[in-house]
Design brief:
Elements (H helix, E strand, L loop, with lengths): L2 H4 E2 L2 H24 L18 H9 L10 E7 L2 E6 L11 H4 L9 E5 L9 E4 L2 E2 L7 E5 L1 E3 L5 E3 L3 H10 L12 H11 L3 H6 L1 H4 L12 H16 L10 E4 L15 E6 L4 E5 L2 E4 L9 E2 L2 E2 H9 L7 H6 L5 H30 L1
Parallel strand pairs: 2-6
Antiparallel strand pairs: 1-3, 2-3, 4-5, 4-7, 8-9, 10-13, 11-12, 12-13, 14-15
Helix pairs in contact: 6-9, 9-12, 10-12
């Protein structure tokens, strides 16, 4: 995987990494040209960058790469954690259909990501309007509301046949089934994939095949639940922050914290309803139900804590030249995000509770 090269919390640091990778690759191309190497001669590429089979093939062909700011896109890397992504076919050769789902950073689309049937983790589902990572919570599949052709024309992914199926089923219980829209169906799907009774009943099926959806009574109630959930999960950065209590260790007489240096911890203490951010700051008052909103094998809050931890990059070049991340630089951002996702978690569980009646 080339994640450490093409993802970053900082667009500026991402630019630096990618330009270094491209410059190093192009130098390898020049070296082969200058030495008159044929495509049959073995490669001896510079080991300071991440190589893949496709990139090695381009090196053999003498194809050069160029950097473009247009390839820097917004991405949902992990649940409720966005990253900047360098989305280029040169360096992301396995884009599958994502280029047709999000043709540029301004593309308007909705996408439902869910666990791949082969994933060993518990089934999860999460909506986004950004490019998702394929390992959002392990191996994942994605279904979008629309896709786009080469001319930029929008195409519905919910077919007219599918719309007719819903209209025909609910014809006897709805006054005017013609008002059912494809967006309604998309919201209905999202609600059903959160329904605990559905997940329990079809648990084995979901480990073997794509989800198959039943027609539940009270169609528009399910649409409403799905829309509420999707609005929460996509617009999580703008929901009202949950009123957690922030506790900071006192400042000494010299104006400094009593404990130096500050060390990042980012640990969840579920029993006490708190999060220990570092040796200075703790957030308290997290309701028990917030931990119950699980995506895979972690709660939403725990996904955030994991992504904000300081970790040494596995790639030696990234570790040496581009390891600029420090939690202290993002601490206030993390606190704000945790408060908002706490609200999202509580509200999500409230809606799921309504489904269960």
């Amino acid at each position: 995987a080339r994640d450490e090269w093409v993802y970053d919390a900082s667009a500026e640091n991402l630019k630096r990494k990618v330009k270094y990778l491209i410059d190093t690759y192009n130098q390898n191309v020049d070296n082969r040209v200058n030495k008159n190497y044929s495509t049959c001669q073995p490669l001896s590429p510079n080991s300071s960058i991440k190589w893949s089979r496709a990139v090695k093939k381009d090196l053999l062909k003498g194809n050069k790469y160029s950097f473009s700011f247009n390839y820097i896109r917004d991405s949902l890397y992990r649940p409720f954690v966005k990253q900047k992504l360098y989305f280029s076919k040169d360096l992301n050769e396995m884009q599958y259909q994502l280029g047709q789902i999000f043709i540029n950073n301004d593309t308007q689309n909705l996408l439902i990501g869910f666990s791949d049937p082969a994933s060993p983790k518990p089934f999860m589902v999460l909506a986004t309007n950004k490019i998702p990572d394929y390992h959002l919570v392990g191996d994942s599949q994605c279904l979008s509301l629309y896709c786009y052709d080469k001319e930029g024309n929008r195409i519905d992914n919910i077919t007219d046949w599918g719309l007719a199926k819903f209209q025909n089923h609910y014809r006897n219980v709805l006054y005017n089934v013609s008002i059912i829209t494809k967006l309604d169906i998309f919201h209905y799907i999202y609600a059903v994939l959160h329904y605990p009774s559905y997940l329990q009943k079809y648990e084995i099926n979901l480990k073997r095949q794509f989800p198959r959806l039943p027609f539940y009574d009270n169609f528009y109630q399910w649409v409403s639940w799905g829309k509420q959930l999707m609005d929460l999960h996509i617009n999580y950065e703008t929901v009202a922050p949950y009123p957690l209590k922030r506790i900071d260790l006192p400042v000494g007489d010299d104006g400094r914290r009593k404990f130096k240096p500050t060390k990042a911890k980012l640990k969840a203490d579920k029993d006490k309803g708190r999060i220990i951010l570092d040796t200075v700051t703790t957030l308290e008052g997290i309701p028990e139900i917030a931990w119950e909103y699980q995506l895979g094998d972690r709660s939403a809050l725990e996904w955030i804590l994991d992504r904000y931890k300081e970790k040494k990059p596995k790639d030696p070049t990234i570790a040496e030249k581009f390891n600029t991340y420090r939690f202290a630089d993002y601490k206030e951002q993390a606190i704000d995000l945790l408060q908002r996702v706490c609200t999202v978690s509580v509200e999500t569980m409230r809606i799921i509770g309504e489904m269960e009646g």
